From TrEMBL:
<dbReference type="InterPro" id="IPR001636">
    <property type="entry name" value="SAICAR_synth"/>
</dbReference>
<comment type="similarity">
    <text>Belongs to the SAICAR synthetase family.</text>
</comment>
<dbReference type="GO" id="GO:0009236">
    <property type="term" value="P:cobalamin biosynthetic process"/>
</dbReference>
<dbReference type="Pfam" id="PF01259">
    <property type="entry name" value="SAICAR_synt"/>
</dbReference>
<keyword id="KW-0436">Ligase</keyword>
<dbReference type="GO" id="GO:0006189">
    <property type="term" value="P:'de novo' IMP biosynthetic process"/>
</dbReference>
<dbReference type="InterPro" id="IPR050089">
    <property type="entry name" value="SAICAR_synthetase"/>
</dbReference>
<comment type="pathway">
    <text>Purine metabolism; IMP biosynthesis via de novo pathway; 5-amino-1-(5-phospho-D-ribosyl)imidazole-4-carboxamide from 5-amino-1-(5-phospho-D-ribosyl)imidazole-4-carboxylate: step 1/2.</text>
</comment>
<dbReference type="InterPro" id="IPR028923">
    <property type="entry name" value="SAICAR_synt/ADE2_N"/>
</dbReference>
<dbReference type="InterPro" id="IPR018236">
    <property type="entry name" value="SAICAR_synthetase_CS"/>
</dbReference>
<keyword id="KW-0547">Nucleotide-binding</keyword>
<dbReference type="GO" id="GO:0004639">
    <property type="term" value="F:phosphoribosylaminoimidazolesuccinocarboxamide synthase activity"/>
</dbReference>
<dbReference type="GO" id="GO:0005829">
    <property type="term" value="C:cytosol"/>
</dbReference>
<protein>
    <recommendedName>
        <fullName>Phosphoribosylaminoimidazole-succinocarboxamide synthase</fullName>
        <ecNumber>6.3.2.6</ecNumber>
    </recommendedName>
</protein>
<feature type="domain" description="SAICAR synthetase/ADE2 N-terminal">
    <location>
        <begin position="6"/>
        <end position="235"/>
    </location>
</feature>
<dbReference type="GO" id="GO:0005524">
    <property type="term" value="F:ATP binding"/>
</dbReference>
<keyword id="KW-0067">ATP-binding</keyword>
């Protein structure tokens, strides 16, 4: 057995060299962090659920013609992705006020926003991922105006898709964060969705109970994170009851 070459180890995932040039293997860890790593815990089973949920969302986006880095899931914790040049911007789309927006603008959590709002944060842990404007992004050359247009159009499409997907299973999409990258194909380049979409980077509230089904359970010490992520997966039809029941013994199939 050869040891795989590790390209990058982040807080929630590891990237390994892929089987072919231009590919990577994205491995989902069980680590949960908040406040730029200030708070850290290993939560058994989180990585497996995020791998499955992200696979589900990215496959659907690919089918809809929204370009992503996702190729296929390899195993419980890993997926094959296309290597991209990550644009050092975190794109946040908000539908309902929560988290830092409430603090910044003195809004009550849960306030419906007049329309979806897109925010940008510069990816730099040493600076604590500061919020930046389109002006900063283009002036400092992190993305060109054309790329930024593509990124915003992509973010809006992802928001429309996710809002409907989750509403259909009784979950409100409050906000989410995405990362985009440049995918080079010959002498062509296009912006694609990269990284992951999972309850680690979405705020998901149960429509009926208002229960939080996302990483805020960890940030706010509410407990039950894996149960909440499993609930999301089950509602999306990713984990069928029967698959869960495998751990508790065989079930009669009628
Ligand atoms: N297709 C891709 N090609 C190259 N890099 C990618 C791709 N998709 C995601 N990445 C990068 O892989 C890393 C995933 O690791 P992880 O999410 O654990 O990082 P992190 O600790 O959150 O740090 P970061 O601040 O860099 O996101 C991120 O840096 C992300 O930008
Ligand atoms: Mg990350």
């Amino acid at each position: 057995m050869n040891r795989r070459r590790k390209i990058y180890e982040g807080k929630a995932k590891v990237l390994y060299e892929g089987p072919e040039p231009g590919t990577l293997i994205q491995h989902f860890k069980d680590d949960a962090t908040a406040g730029n790593g200030a708070k850290h815990e290993v939560i058994d089973g989180k990585g497996v659920l995020n791998n499955r949920i992200s696979e589900f969302v990215f496959s659907k986006l690919n089918t809809l013609g929204i370009p992503t880095h996702f190729v296929r899931r390899i195993n419980m914790r890993e997926q094959l992705i296309r290597e991209v040049e990550i644009i050092p911007i975190e794109v946040v789309v908000r539908n309902v006020a929560a988290g830092s927006l409430c603090k910044r603008l003195g809004l009550e959590s849960g306030t419906q926003l007049p329309r979806s709002i897109i925010e940008f944060y510069y990816k730099d842990d040493a600076l604590n991922d500061p919020m930046v404007s389109e002006e900063h992004i283009t002036a400092f050359g992190w993305a060109t105006p054309q790329e930024l247009d593509d990124i915003m159009a992509l973010a809006v499409r992802v928001n429309d898709f996710l809002t409907g997907l989750f509403m259909g299973v009784g979950i409100q999409l409050v906000d989410f964060k995405i990362e985009c990258g440049r995918l080079f194909e010959g002498d062509m380049m296009r912006i694609v969705l990269a990284d992951e979409i999972s309850p680690d980077n979405c705020r998901l509230w149960d429509v009926k109970t208002r229960n939080k089904l996302d990483k805020d359970r960890f940030r706010e010490d509410l407990g039950g994170l894996v149960d909440a992520y499993r609930e999301v997966a089950q509602r999306l039809g990713i984990l069928v009851e029967a698959e869960n029941a495998l751990t508790t013994g065989p079930r009669l199939v009628q």
